[in-house]
Amino acid sequence: MKNILLFLFGLFYATTFAQTHYAGQYSLGLNYGFVNSGTNYNINVQKLIGNKFFGMRADLDLLKQDYSLAFFGATKYQGNFNSKRVGIAATYSLEKVIPHPFYLQLYIGGIYSNEDLKNFDLPEGAMPSYNRNNFGAYGGTELEFVLFPALSFTGGLKYQNIFKSTIDKEIIFGQVGIKINF
Questions:
Q1: Which of 104, 89, 108 is nearest to 146 (CA)?
Q2: Residue 140 φ then ψ, to 5°
Q3: Would you indicate the residue range of the signal peptide (predicted)?
Q4: What pLDDT, in 10s, does the model give residues 70-122?
């Protein structure tokens, strides 16, 4: 029985090497991000267009970080920085460069950010003014390991630059997650 199960698993796993990305394929990604003093949750939808190398990607990021405000360089107040970010990016797959069952994708695009400072114990009227709604650019790389034709593990790095943010202009974070291909 053990040999039969091992054979079936090997046969099933071998079919993942035949899996390739194809034009028109959709995928849904769910990621957890690691960022300095905080976390990021990401949901993304991708579609390959034209050929199997180019595509489009839509991202929704929910970012939460510990943050400190300093007044006159001396007094510091602790609180949270929350941001909801929506981005649209073009993707390119380096499918021919790296062997199956791995895929490496690069992406770059524009991003909108809604930012909020919360939970600061400040004196009345002392909260500084800041830009809540901002635009910027983002890009990154995502390495995908195909576990089954419809399921992959992903990991990657993402860089975001929010142009006119008065809170957090640049952020780099790593992320891990899963991708469902359909």
A1: 104
A2: 180, -175
A3: 1-18
A4: 766 656 778 888 999 999 999 998 887 887 788 899 999 999 999 888 887 77
Give the whole-angstrom CA distance, residue 73 versus residue 90.
Answer: 41
Three-class DSSP labels, 110-156: EEEEEEEEECCCCCCCCCCCCCCEEEEEEEEEEEEEEEECCEEEEEE
Which stretches of the chain are DSSP H helices? Answer: 2-18
Among 87, 33, 88, residue whose Cα is nearest residue 63: 33
What's the length of the chain?
A: 182
pTM of structure:
0.80
Residue 8 has φ and ψ, to the nearest 5°, of -65, -40
Helices (H), 37-87: none
